[in-house]
Amino acid sequence: MKVAVFNTKAYDQSFFNSSNEKYGHNLQFFEFALNPQSATLASDFPVVCVFVNDLINRKTIEILAQGKTRLIALRCAGFNNVNLKAAQEFGIGVVRVPAYSPYAVAEHTIALMLTLNRQIHRAYNRVREGNFSLNGLLGFDLHGCTVGIIGTGKIGRIVGQILTGFGCKILAYDLYPDQEFAQKYAQYVSLDELFAQANIISLHCPLTPETYHLINQEAITKMKSGVMLINTSRGGLIDTETIIDGLKSQKIAYLALDVYEQEENLFFEDLSNEVIQDDTFQRLLTFPNVIITGHQAFFTKNALENIADTTLANITDFEQGKSCPNEIKHF
Ligand code: NAD
């Protein structure tokens, strides 16, 4: 099939070309994002392939439909950037890659927790400057900590399993508790109880209208003083301005973000020679107890191979008129 692949970097092209030897689709790579301004370039492509920060709103979908696109193939798990209702109205199918490597994201989450706790980011710089003082690098044992996991799907459950190995107590909150996870690893509690008890809170639920700004002023008030907050899910789960207040008051003692509300203006690009205009983001970077990675949690060799393979298989299913297990039907 003729596929317009938007928002690609050299590494995407390399993994897709390699996997496509098996599928034989006609892939045309664009480096820019799909949005209402660029959507006309998809004209006569029956399939568009997009990533987390492409903007597939109603306007984009209208233009895609005019250009005879019939399938939006997301090469990611989350689909909060697609107006599914509009896609359905215009008869455009939407498929995704529900699980490419939950281990990649879960392991990055743990890396962020350990880095923050043991101040590895600061120690790295100090030692390189010949400063071997330990002042200000005091950590705490993860063993014995209570960790609250919000969203116990594929990624959240792996985070819980790994942390059980560290000797942490796992509290969990999910709209649909997982029985096996509850039996082996975690105690499901209300969101309020999780906020009240957890030393570390890790977000693993999707961004939906219900979870938008789940971490707001009210939620922070309910948390323990000195809490560590990790978000490797979606930026919109956190009200960033409120988090800055929480950091200033030291209620939040540690914050790690792999995702950020306004990340589409920043992430995945080299802006090292530019002046960043986002003052909120720049304020976050001034805190010594904040670590930000640029939507990197998924970025392992294993995950990129799975992403390319599943995306191309989804497109083949569509081409052959087969029902695709990764189609997003219910929303
Ligand atoms: P999943 O669908 O397996 O699990 C999501 C869980 O969240 C489900 O158990 C669901 O019941 C729960 N949930 C839904 N609404 C909720 C709510 N209102 N409150 C509490 N729980 C709720 O998804 P996953 O594969 O574990 O991925 C989780 C999220 O991680 C994705 O939605 C995506 O946004 C994010 N993600 C980030 C990266 C990255 O590179 N940073 C990569 C992949 C996924």
TrEMBL record:
<dbReference type="Pfam" id="PF00389">
    <property type="entry name" value="2-Hacid_dh"/>
</dbReference>
<dbReference type="InterPro" id="IPR029752">
    <property type="entry name" value="D-isomer_DH_CS1"/>
</dbReference>
<keyword id="KW-0520">NAD</keyword>
<feature type="domain" description="D-isomer specific 2-hydroxyacid dehydrogenase catalytic">
    <location>
        <begin position="3"/>
        <end position="328"/>
    </location>
</feature>
<feature type="domain" description="D-isomer specific 2-hydroxyacid dehydrogenase NAD-binding">
    <location>
        <begin position="110"/>
        <end position="297"/>
    </location>
</feature>
<dbReference type="InterPro" id="IPR006140">
    <property type="entry name" value="D-isomer_DH_NAD-bd"/>
</dbReference>
<protein>
    <submittedName>
        <fullName>D-lactate dehydrogenase</fullName>
        <ecNumber>1.1.1.28</ecNumber>
    </submittedName>
</protein>
<dbReference type="GO" id="GO:0051287">
    <property type="term" value="F:NAD binding"/>
</dbReference>
<dbReference type="InterPro" id="IPR006139">
    <property type="entry name" value="D-isomer_2_OHA_DH_cat_dom"/>
</dbReference>
<keyword id="KW-0560">Oxidoreductase</keyword>
<dbReference type="GO" id="GO:0008720">
    <property type="term" value="F:D-lactate dehydrogenase (NAD+) activity"/>
</dbReference>
<dbReference type="InterPro" id="IPR058205">
    <property type="entry name" value="D-LDH-like"/>
</dbReference>
<dbReference type="InterPro" id="IPR029753">
    <property type="entry name" value="D-isomer_DH_CS"/>
</dbReference>
<dbReference type="Pfam" id="PF02826">
    <property type="entry name" value="2-Hacid_dh_C"/>
</dbReference>
<comment type="similarity">
    <text>Belongs to the D-isomer specific 2-hydroxyacid dehydrogenase family.</text>
</comment>
<dbReference type="InterPro" id="IPR036291">
    <property type="entry name" value="NAD(P)-bd_dom_sf"/>
</dbReference>
